[in-house]
Amino acid sequence: MSTGATSTSGKETENLHGGRWAMLVAIIGAFAGAVAIGGCAAKGPSTFAVPAGEYVVAFESAREVLRNRRFPIERVDSEQGVLTTAAKPSSGFATPWDLDQTTVSQEFSDLVNQQNRRVRVTFENADGVPTLNRDGAIVGRVDVVVYRMQDYSLRPASRALLFSTRSTDPTLSAQGIYPQYEVPSQADSRLADRVARDIEREMATRQSVAAQSSATE
């Protein structure tokens, strides 16, 4: 009797372990699939058309979209047709309220790296003339760059990151030079495209409101 019970228990344990391994493989497969799908997500143009006479509406729409996305506005130059933002940090999965990431791989990258994004919106004449004609047809372009923080003072421990230390250089510190610095990592064309589409929708909303106001007067 004991031999049969032991044999049955061994089979149950083997089946349990097998089930756990199968579940783990399924989870890894699903995650890999999500990354692959996200990495292959379609990217559209990060430009938008501004009809003649609608430059002011387009410029204000761009500024409103950046505000709604919580990007701190840094430069506002309507004469030159430039809008830029300061750095906006993100921690990927750890900040679920942040909607700047488009793919799972971007969420993971922002989680394991100290990264931020900067946005630049530029307006140019559709005919290519250098000097901006605010009354003519214009093309807006959105550029987003991901910046990553680097720290050459970090000395990772061989046992665990918890025991890592940092080196200091009093001479450089006295000169106001610190080991942390920011470098451009990559362009985020997917976010640039989404911002461009948001600007188009905001422009359409403002034009619709203006048309209704004119009709009621």
Word description of this protein:
By secondary structure, this protein is an alpha+beta fold. It has 2 domains: 40 residues; 173 residues, no CATH class. It is 43% helix and 24% strand. The chain contains 5 helices and 9 strands. The strands form 2 sheets. Strands 1, 2, 3, 4, 5, 6 and 9 form a 7-stranded antiparallel sheet that branches. Strands 7-8 form a two-stranded antiparallel ribbon. The longest helix is centred in the N-terminal third of the chain and has 38 residues. It is elongated and about 70 Å long. 19% of the residues are buried.
Any key phrases for this structure?
217 residues, 5 helices, alpha+beta, seven-stranded antiparallel beta sheet, single chain, 2 domains, 43% helix
Number of domains: 2
For the CA atoms, what is the radius of gyration?
Answer: 26 Å
Poorly predicted runs of 5 or more residues: 5-9, 11-18, 20-42
Number-wise, the strands total 9
Q: Kindly name the structural category.
A: alpha+beta
Main pleated sheet = 7 strands, antiparallel
N→C terminal distance: 95 Å
In N-to-C order, the SSE pattern is HEHEEEHEEEEHEH
Q: What characteristic shape results from the CA principal axes? A: elongated
User: Which strand-content bin applies to the residues?
Assistant: 15-25%
